[in-house]
Automatic annotation (TrEMBL):
GO terms for biological process: DNA transposition. This is Transposase. GO terms for molecular function: DNA binding; transposase activity. Belongs to the transposase 8 family. InterPro entries: Homeodomain-like_sf (IPR009057), Transposase_8 (IPR002514). It holds the Pfam family HTH_Tnp_1.
Amino acid sequence: MSESKRKTFTDEFKAKVALEAIRGVKTVSQIAQEFGVHPTQVGAWKKLLQEEASSLFDAKRGPKPADPSASPERLYSEIGRLKMELDWLKKKSGISQ
């Protein structure tokens, strides 16, 4: 008994097959045979593409949101700057710890 591996398809391939199905020039069976996938899979990819197509145009223009990974760095640098200012002010005013 031989084990067959499940085929994996790239996102580009899935999009290509789904677009071909949406065009409607060929039948789902013809598309499935041409690309070597099951007709049910072609239908599923077509349905997914139709459902998700509206989200492609949801992006709004304007400034991009700040990168959350840079936030801790910025905060630590701000803390350091404020600590140095506080130390300088304490030194200038003559307040000792």
